Structures are given as structure tokens and as C-alpha cells.
Amino acid sequence: MIGKLSATWLVAPPFMGPLAPMLSLAALAMPTAILSLDHSLPAGACCTTYFPFVLISAVLIGPIYASLVALGSAFLADALFMGPHYQLFESPMDEFGDIASLVSSALIIALVFAFRKLFVQLRAQQLSVSSKSGIVFSLEKGVAWASVSRARAPVRLGPQEEVAEMMEDFLAQLELGKRLSKRNR
């Protein structure tokens, strides 16, 4: 179960839709709360506290929301923990810190994106080896899926019963076609 779950997380972010903005806010709130507990932080320590949350956001909710978390992190770190509170870019060092934080976050997000792309390519190669046509059918929670070796992600075919019925109909049509072609010879 965990292997299958982590494999799907590697292909695509598991939390898309209405849950993603809430998770983005949580990814900003948690490190901000952690940082607010200790007021004697060394310079620059505030930005690094946000990096694990940018990474988790990139894995769980995708690059767009992770980018928003990265931008929010830089803003919150500068506004709340660098220099006087609620002031932005009060020194050139703050500008450098914000830029360094954004570049680091961008690298984290790009690494997750590249790893996903590599994983999908490796998975597609395995599928093409395991099937002559490169098409593999699978079933997950009562839903039928088809994976094609060149496709980015599996394609949802529909509920198991409906797809099974269509497949049976397709096979019956093939059989009928074979019988009719034998008669015509």
C-alpha cells in the first residue's frame, strides 16, 4: 500500500483541487509559527526554516502552489524576521537574502519536477518492456486505468463494471468478425 501510494506521489501531486490552497497556507503558517517561538535567531536562519515546507509543497501540491509557498516564504521571512518587523527590503542584505531564498526554493521545486519526469520516463520504459504494444490495463479502487508507454500518466477508463462490459462487447465483436470472415471464404 505504501509503495503504491508513494509511486503515485512520484508521478503526480496527490492533492490538487480545493485542498491545495489550504495546504499552501499551512505550509506558510507552520514555519512562521516555529520561527515566532524563538526571537534570537541568527541572520539568515529564518529563510532556511521554510525550505522543507517548500519541498513538501512541491511533492504534495505541485510546482504552482509550491512556487506560491516560496514567494510567501520570502515575503514573510523578510517582513517578520529580517530587520525591523513589517518592513520590506530595508537593507541590501535583505534583498540578497530574499533573492537567495527564492533561487533556493526554485531549485528545490525544479528538482522535484525533474525527478517526477525521470520517474515517469523510467516507468514508461518498464511498461513498454512488459507489454508488446506498450499498453497495460490496471484496476485501482474499482476504477480501470490504461497506461501507455509514451503517456505521462495513466488514463482513467471508467468504473470496472462498465469497462469490463465494453471489453466483453469488443471481444464478442472480434469473435463475430472472425466467424463471418471464415464463412465468406
Q: What does this entry show, briefly?
A:
The protein has helices spanning 2-11, 19-37, 45-61, 63-81, 92-130, 160-183, and strands at residues 135-140, 143-148, 155-159. With 185 residues, the chain is mainly alpha-helical.
What are the salient characteristics of this protein?
single chain, 3-stranded antiparallel β-sheet, 185 residues, mainly alpha
> What's the story with the biggest beta sheet?
3 strands, antiparallel
What is the alpha-carbon Rg in Å?
Answer: 25 Å
Q: What structural class do the secondary elements suggest?
A: mainly alpha
Strand runs, count: 3
Report the mean per-residue pLDDT as an integer.
Answer: 79
Spatial strand order of the main sheet? 1-2-3
Domain module tally = 2
End-to-end Cα distance: 53 Å
Figure out the total of helices. Answer: 6
Beta content comes to 5-15%
Order of helices and strands: HHHHHEEEH
Helix percent reads: 55-70%
**Morphology call:** elongated
Note poorly predicted spans: none
